[in-house]
Amino acid sequence: MPAGASTGAAGGAACGDLVRISLALDRGATDGVIAQVGFDASGCGAAVAAGSAAVALVTGAPLLSAARVGAREISLELGGLSAAKQHAAELAADALHRALGAALREQAGLARAGGRTLVAMSGGVDSAVAALLAGERGREAIGVTLELWSDPQNDGEASCCSAQAVRSARELAHGLGMAHFSVDLREEFRAGVVEHWLAGHARGQTPNPCVRCNGSVRLDAMLELADRIGAATLTTGHYARVALDGSAPLLRTAADEAKDQSYVLAALQPASLARLRFPLGDMHKAQVRELARGAGLAVAGRKDSQDLCFLAGTRQRDFLQRHGGLGHRPGAILDGDGAVLGEHTGAHSFTTGQRHGLGISGAAPLYVLGTDTLANTVTVGPRAELMSPAVSARDVTLHREGSLVDGVRVRAHGRRHACAISRELTAGRHEHVEIVLAEPAERTAPGQVACLYSGELLVGVGTIAA
Fold first, then answer.
1. CATH match for 386-464 among 2.170.16.10, 1.10.10.10, 2.40.30.10, 3.60.20.10
2. Model confidence pLDDT, tens digit, residues 263-309
């Protein structure tokens, strides 16, 4: 194993085969030539041979060339593998790309190339078409996929950040002729996103992990990778646009209002936003799928992911118990007067506005009006009692003066409500903001995000207070 190398491994107890690859770059080379490579493997002979083939293919290669090597190239280097042994080539490719991703973070510093862009790829149709469009517009597109979560209880196929999703994205990128890197960010994701989400639920809040992930973990990490790969910009498949109005850049809603993702990007800093490119922002989903079909992409008809990526097939209640220690804790379901109507399994499992899963009935449908995790109670009532004329938000950042705010969105896929800020506010940070609605709307759970708009422009973001 080379001294000071970056290492990646794949396999282990589940399959009995293990491949581990370590590589060191020539730090004096502007193209990141792989100067030394070593490997070890255990298990069947095919796994050992595949590890050796991967080393042979990348020794002395520039980093971007090595990032185009996948299971297909490893299999061909061995003269072809039977279907039963193809697993060995896939393991070697996984190990190689984890090593390449680690080397990208730890060692690389490629010279800046003006036409180069890093493309965030999830293995889905949106990021695939974003990569396709970047290439058609004359950019040198390089794919990257972050492995953010690994849990045997998850459905890896339904997750956009699992090891299975990383492999799918790599195959897709290679099919487009692109170099591709996979980077393990599981430790940072758990600490920066999942632990915050679990702690919020323990306090009776319902945080939005996607806003936090995009704003402080995932996209910033990829912008750092873009710097190391010599790319000025980061391209993603988000449905959003960037507006330049003479000051710092602002997010602008997508042309396809039904797919708009400005909400989940709301915590991005202006410096990050200035380097982001959203080629799908002016398109509708049907157009994106048509482009994918026209390019012969296998993901053209793939369904969009619906769950939080770290849930992916896992019930939220089970996840909270397994990872947050928030287990079965019976408590009282109360009406607005404090009368006991029934029993719940834990106040942390319920959120404001929830209707299903209460296990009780009334003359009219009952909704969760609020929770108290200290008292372990859930208060319910008719929908009319959910309605509120205002939204209270804390820790609000305004990118423009408050007088410009005319709309607020309190759910990622919810409608924008006409509104106004209750007092004059300048751009900057504000501890508390009261948002007066033009018409009463359902209250949203504390901990969720409130996005403030001026027409199509996102001009502020905060957290909904109790």
1. 2.40.30.10
2. 999 999 999 999 999 999 999 999 999 999 999 999 998 888 766 88
Instruction: Give me the catalytic one of 160, 213, 419, 451.
Output: 213
Q: Quick check: is 160 catalytic?
A: no
Number of helices followed by number of strands (H, E) in the chain: 13, 20
The CATH number of domain 329-381, selected from 2.30.30.280, 3.40.50.620, 3.40.50.80, 2.130.10.10: 2.30.30.280
Q: Is the pTM of this model over 0.85?
A: yes
What region does 16 belong to: left with phi over 0, alpha with psi -120 to 50, or beta? left
CA distance 43 to 247: 59
Please tell me the CATH code under which domain 112-327 is placed: 3.40.50.620
376: left (phi over 0), alpha (psi -120 to 50) or beta: left
Catalytic hit among 160, 210, 309, 451: 309
Catalytic residue check, 213: yes
